Every structure is written in C-alpha cells, then in structure tokens.
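On clarity, I found the account of how folds are encoded harder to follow than it need be. For illustration, here is how one protein appears when written out as sequence plus structure tokens:

:::
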Amino acid sequence: MRAVNLLPNESSGRSSRSAPQPAVLAAAISGVVAVVAIGGGNLIEAARVSSAQKTLDAAKIQLAATPLPPAAPRVTPPPVAVAEQMQPRLAAVSAALSSRIAWDRILREFSLVLPSDIQLTGLTLTVPAAGSTTSGLTMNGVTYSYDSLARLLARLALVPDLSGVTLGPTTVSQKLVGFSITAGIKGASPAVPAPTVTPSATTTTTTTTSGA
C-alpha cells in the first residue's frame, strides 16, 4: 500500500499567516489617519480657545482700567415765580423766531433761478409790517424779449420763500424790455389785530330813605 501524508504543509501555512490581508491593512491605515485628524483638530480648537480667552482677559483688564463717565448734572426746575416770569419772554422769542425771514436763503434761491439774459437795475427787500400790504421783494430790470421775462416769472414762482409773484408795467426801448416784478415774502409777520376793549358795566345803587 502507498503511504499518504495527511498533515498540512508547514511552509504553505507559514506563508499564509505571514502575509497580511489588504482589507485589514487598509482598515488599520484609516484608523491611524482618523486618530491623527481628531488629535490635530483638538489641538487647533484648543489653540483657538486659548487665544480667545487671552483676548477676553485683555478686554476685561482694559475695561477695568477705563474710568467711569461723570454723572449727568441734576437739573433743578426753577421756582414757580421764576417760571412765570420766563414764560412771556419765551413766548416772545418763539414768536420772533417763527416770523424770522432768512434773507440769505432767499437771495441764494433767487440767484439760482435768475436767467443769464436778465439784467437787474434794482432789487429791494423789505420786511412787511403787521397789517401792511407792502410787497417784500421788488425788482426792476431789462431783458431782450418777452420770452425771457416769462421764463423769469415761471422760475420765480418755484422759489419756496416767495409768494404772489406779480408782473408790473413793462416798457420797450432800444430793443430792450424793461420790467418791474413784485413778490411777497413767506414767513413775514402776520397782521396782528388790535385788541378789543370791552367797557365794564357800571352798577349804580340808589338808596331811598323815607322819614317817619
């Protein structure tokens, strides 16, 4: 009979155990990479937290060294008698400011709308008195045509501080059109009506004494 060796070959078993499998090797490498990545992320976050903590500590130190602002002074209201004396003055100042005419603004607006082909020969600015019908602005000048004069009137009507722009008599001399324009000034003092005085009624009592 022929002898048969049933034992495994030792050389083949050793070679199969010594050679690592590719899947196992890949898993090991992935684990190492994951551990390194997690460790690096933790180090970066720890560095950021440390930097933020240092910035916060420096801000707290700066805030503690900053002096507090001075307390606002306490405003004490004036006595009643002083307030009663100040009230008419405040009313007078408010009334004066409400009727104040800004001549600089009016002249600036007028210079912006004045056409280049208009030549002024006179310009008068007056403050109308209370109850007066006198115009606040009066101008005289010359131009080359009635079209230029109409353009001037249209532009003056757009000036916010002017009202009632009116063209006066015009003349024509040596191909030049002379004109006169009047306008009211907004914000002038309104007419103040005269106070009405009502006489008080007088009661006369007559006493009659009769003799006994």
In short: The radius of gyration is 51 Å. Strands lie at 119-125, 137-143, 162-167, 171-173, 176-185.
